[in-house]
Amino acid sequence: MKVERITIRKGSREDLQKMPHMLMEAYRGIEEYGEKDIDKARRYIEGLYQEDPECFFVAEIEGEIIGFIFCNRFWYSKFEHSQVGAIHEIVVVPAYRHEGIGKMLIEKAMEALNSSKIELWVGEKNKEAIKLYENLGFQRKEKIGKWLRMVYMA
Ligand SMILES: CC(C)(COP(=O)(O)OP(=O)(O)OC[C@H]1O[C@@H](n2cnc3c(N)ncnc32)[C@H](O)[C@@H]1OP(=O)(O)O)[C@@H](O)C(=O)NCCC(=O)NCCS
């Protein structure tokens, strides 16, 4: 697969329809960090979209959506005691992983967030995602229950 065939574009409300199913599929094997069922996934995705519709991007190949990211430019971090950028969810469908699409989506979100501080939470055993974030400059912070907070500082 050629990375040049991938387009990253702003997501629309119409695109949201596919997201819950993609989310459920993406968390197979790491269910403890995902949503319990498709209805919860629908509500979760809708909530993420409403937080900051301008900060929702999709990765597409020949018109097919194969990944997405939700971020928020106006997130208040209890841990930083200030407003920061936040990355809330990222998914790449299993068949297209390890090709750099996750990195492309995060870089797009970081550009849109345009913030000197970016926070995210990731499952502590989600090694793949943690490694990806570390490669992009995020640092491990607090562990709260099964979640690890990570922060990028420009
Ligand atoms: C986390 C997730 C989004 C990563 O997506 P991805 O597209 O596989 O990410 P990337 O390809 O950019 O990077 C992953 C790995 O592929 C490697 N890679 C990137 N381009 C590559 C290429 N052309 N050839 C081979 N490997 C490549 C990267 O170096 C990285 O490897 P590493 O982890 O050994 O360092 C994906 O695994 C996913 O959807 N997981 C389930 C949902 C989830 O956990 N989301 C995070 C919630 S916090």
Number of domains: 1
CA(first)-CA(last) distance: 32 Å
Bound molecules: coenzyme A
**In angstroms, what is the radius of gyration?**
15 Å
Known CATH architecture: 3-Layer(aba) Sandwich
CATH fold label: Aminopeptidase
Average pLDDT, rounded to a whole number, is 96
CATH homologous superfamily annotation: Gcn5-related N-acetyltransferase (GNAT)
- Runs in which pLDDT lies below 50 for 5 or more consecutive residues are none
Shape: globular
The helix/strand order is: EHHEEEHEHEE
Assign a percent range to the helix content: 25-40%
Question: How would you explain this protein's 3D organization?
Answer:
The protein is an alpha+beta fold and 154 residues long. The chain has one domain: Aminopeptidase (3-Layer(aba) Sandwich). It is 29% helix and 36% strand. It has helices spanning 19-26, 38-51, 101-113, 127-135; strands at 6-10, 56-61, 64-77, 82-92, 117-123, 139-144, 147-153. A 7-stranded mixed beta sheet has the order 1-2-3-4-5-7-6, sandwiched between helices. Helix 1 packs across helix 2 (38-51). The protein is globular. The model has no long low-confidence stretch (mean pLDDT 96). Bound molecules: coenzyme A. The site of coenzyme A has 19 residues, from strand 4, helix 3 and helix 4. Coenzyme A is lined by residues 26-27, 90-92, 97-103, 122, 126, 128-129, 131-132, 135.
Task: Please name the defining characteristics of this protein.
Aminopeptidase, globular, alpha+beta, 154 residues, binds coenzyme A, single chain, seven-stranded mixed beta sheet
Question: Briefly, what is this?
Answer:
The protein has 154 residues and is α+β, with helices and mostly antiparallel strands. It has four helices and seven strands; from the N terminus they run βααβββαβαββ. Bound molecules: coenzyme A.
